[in-house]
Amino acid sequence: MSIDLARIEAAVAEILDAVGEDPKRAGLTATPRRVAEAYSEFFAGNTIDPLVHLSDSIEFTAKADQTGELVLVRDIEFRSMCEHHLLPFLGVAHVAYVPDERIIGLGNIARVVETIAARAQLQERLTEEITDAINTGLSPRGVLVVVDAVHGCVSARGPRQTASSTVTLASRGVLSDPVERAEVMALIGRGGDA
């Protein structure tokens, strides 16, 4: 299903009218079009299978004395839309995996994150879906994903906690082991000092 820009424009005009604004007022005449264009970006992931970004993985064969070292991509910036209030949440994802027989270009990991984030989301589901996509697309020995985000619905309304962030974590395979997970978490926490 493609994004229906005309319907979004009509809905935004109706919302403006419903909150007591005049959608024909000079400052608002282009707002429905602008919101529709923004929403086409915010929800572009609805029509894309994130596994397409992992389809060109290449064979990886470790030497007999190697187990396949950890691959960690930190600080992948993303934005998503909270499905409860349709307000944005912004953050970073840290994606780690232990290769088995396949590896992928690092930019493709960021594309997986961007695709899954470009949907109406919950942060908990976003974290699980990224983990599942990497696990399915690469069949690694282990996957760990940590997402740290600031939510518009928490910072701009209700409790208005502007300095808080939410952290979610999902893991599969060998990276579900507490010792292995702790090592990856230490690497994530080091920022740029690896």
Describe the structure using short key phrases.
7 strands, two-stranded antiparallel ribbon, 5-stranded mixed β-sheet, alpha+beta, 194 residues
Description:
It is a single chain. Strand 2 and strand 3 (88-98) form a beta hairpin. The protein has 194 residues and is an alpha+beta fold. It has helices spanning 5-18, 31-42, 106-117, 123-138, 152-155, 178-189, and strands at 58-59, 71-82, 88-98, 102-103, 120-121, 142-151, 166-173. The chain contains 6 helices and 7 strands; from the N terminus they run ααββββαβαβαβα. Helix 1 (5-18) crosses helix 2 (31-42) and helix 3 (106-117) runs antiparallel to helix 4. The strands form 2 sheets. Strands 5-2-3-6-7 form a 5-stranded mixed sheet, sandwiched between helices. Strands 1-4 form a two-stranded antiparallel sheet. The termini are far apart. The model has no long low-confidence stretch (mean pLDDT 92). It is elongated and about 70 Å long.
